[in-house]
Write a structure and sequence with these properties.
The chain is α+β, with helices and mostly antiparallel strands. 30% of the residues lie in helices and 27% in strands.
Length: 381
Amino acid sequence: MFLCCLLVQAAHAQPDSDSTETQLVKSLQAINDNHLDLALNEVNNLLRANPNFKLAQLVKGDLLMAHAGAIDNIGSAANAPHNQLEDLRDEARVRLQRVMSQSDAKLVPRFLWQMDPQQKYALVVDTSRATLFVYENVNGEPRYVTDFYVTIGKLGTEKLSAGDQRTPIGVYFVKTELPKNKLADMYGSAAYPLSYPNEWDRKNGHTGQGIWLHGTPKDTYSRPPRASNGCVVLTNDDLKKLAPYLQIGITPVIITNQMDWSNEQDRSERDELQRAVEQWRKDWASLDTGGYPKHYSRNFSSGNMNYAAWAKQKQQVNSAKSWIKVNVSNISMFTYPEQPDMVVVNFEQDYSSNNLSNRMKKRQYWIRQDNHWKIIYEGAA
């Protein structure tokens, strides 16, 4: 039975804090030990703090019914909302698994190859575990800070089109903050729109918009793991805790189907890409019209120009230059989920020549082709 599996897992879990998940696990452990009064006390503690926590209400109903017989499943109470039981059972399973996987907190996620000095924090959403991880930037390297339970789209991930009720997979950034007084109640205490669709989404024909980080209605503590129209949803309390880590226009939000951890090979590939970016800069600044275009993929395009047309135009432009200086700073590198050989590179570019100078934030998508890093997209960030 579903509850039996949960109880076996709970018996091996080691809750070490007073979070929602650990309080829930303590209750399940008490049920497993047949300490029903203790279990009821833990659930009551949860409900005092979060009276709209539907899962806790359901477990409490089961415990009150336990005097009439053994609990063999979550939702055994006669008045359980049967149309929502599977959603609530999924939430119970996910919250329990979150407590049991806390040892992962010390690992380094593969997606955060390099953070620039302005990025104080980065977020990684593991949709398979309904978890949003927060990492601090420590000299360009990520260090785990905390994590939160989240809800994603009703139909899962891999968003392709408007209205498909799926959450996108990719590298995004927090665009702005929408305060509560500008929101409908369904979005909770605040909302933070993300930069979906990004450049890669548009290149692949993905449509839609309005993918946000946001909270829950005032009469709802949390939602099941799959219940949104594509947004990433947190409880209002957790959203308030998350807010100090968010920098508008700066904080990256990587959404993945499954967390991938860094290893020695991964770090070697990062170092190779760092060298490729530096060589790209040098070849451009040296007016090497033969070497510079070689850094771009044959699949590269710029506006309506394919690679061949773009390379010809670049050669014409550079032929009018007597000198070029190119400096790049504040570099960040994020590997792209579900695209193991692609990395999003952002930096500030300071360009000057005998007839032009400008400074801009640039974004490039680098892919690994035939064991070499090549640029497949380039544009303003």
